[in-house]
Design goal:
The protein has eleven helices and twelve strands. By secondary structure, it is an alpha/beta fold. β5, α4 and β6 form a beta-alpha-beta unit. Bound molecules: zinc ion (ZN).
């Protein structure tokens, strides 16, 4: 746990070194001193990643589209919370949103219904075709090939994207350049090496199930994400969380080794979230998730930041 490793051949973007936290499937996760956040080492090459997201991602998860459709009512409540925040913080005439890695287009679809001008980019052919089928302005491309020629964005959303990106500094700086002055980003990433996961590991002998080197390169905490955003031209204005699914593990429901149980746990969290969205509880729900974020709890982090 105290071993220090360095890349034999540091990538062009700089050497990555730091304490090795875990080795999963032969891949190390390091507490990178240069980057200020945890990531796998070595970092995979761009070409390898591109082919994975254009073809492999949906193929490896055949039920992806079905599950998302089944979850749509819940997702819409999640997305409404995000649009509510953006609409509270942007003037009424600022409603241009970009979703990077928009998947099937549900976030964009919700925005369009609320009067936003929306567009998305999505590297998976199958997902982008689905989004285009909803009549959405979605390009099947990767972010490095994407250019905006007709004006800057008021809001940029990227959910479950940054953990997959080989060079998050480049990604965030490019995002920053696409944003209007005072524009807002909404970043959603898994909350890894969290206090809850530490208890699972220390007290209940869980392995680091949150490490998946084939998919996730980067492993953020609220602090490391805020630090990275600060270095790339953003100021964090709000931190909140999504339901701490790992509570189920604390309560004895081991969904890590049982996929069906995982769906049952997910169904319970959906019901809870939807019920907590009722008028008498809505403010409590909002503050509960913000409080969780303050303590580093929540399976995913939802962080809003303005362009500095
Ligand atoms: Zn690094």
């Amino acid at each position: 746990m105290t071993e220090v490793k360095e890349n034999a051949e540091p990538a062009a973007r700089g050497a990555h070194s730091g304490r090795v936290l875990d080795t999963v499937d032969g891949v190390d996760v390091i507490e990178c001193e240069g980057c200020g956040f945890k990531h796998i080492n070595p970092i995979p090459g761009d070409e390898e990643l591109k082919s994975y997201y254009s073809e492999g991602f949906v193929k490896e998860r055949p039920l992806y589209i079905e599950k998302l459709e089944e979850d749509l009512e819940w997702w819409n409540t999640v997305y409404d919370d995000r649009y509510d925040f953006l609409e509270r913080h942007l003037p009424e005439d600022r409603r241009r949103a970009l979703d990077i890695g928009c998947g099937l287009g549900h976030f964009l679809n919700r925005g369009r219904a609320r009067g936003w001008q929306v567009r998305g980019i999505e590297p998976s052919r199958q997902s982008s075709a689905h989004a285009q089928g909803l009549g959405l302005d979605v390009l099947n491309t990767t972010f490095d090939e994407f250019e905006v020629k007709d004006g800057l964005m008021d809001a940029i959303h990227f959910s479950e994207v940054l953990e997959h990106i080989a060079d998050p500094v480049w990604f965030l700086e490019k995002t920053n350049s696409l944003l209007c002055d005072d524009g807002i980003i909404c970043v959603v990433v898994p909350n890894d090496y969290s206090p809850v996961q530490k208890v699972l590991r220390d007290k209940l002998s869980f392995k680091p199930y949150w490490v998946s080197p084939g998919q996730h390169i980067n492993y953020f905490s609220f602090d490391s994400l805020e630090g990275l955003l600060g270095k790339t031209g953003f100021k964090v204005i709000e931190k909140t969380a999504m339901f701490p699914m790992d509570f189920f593990l604390l309560m004895g429901d081991d969904y890590v080794t049982d996929g069906l149980l995982g769906r049952e746990c997910h169904a319970k969290r959906k019901s809870l979230d939807i019920m907590l969205g009722e008028p008498g509880l809505k403010n409590f729900k909002k503050e509960m998730y913000e409080l969780m974020a303050r303590y580093g709890v929540g399976r995913e982090m939802v962080v809003y930041a303005v362009k500095k």
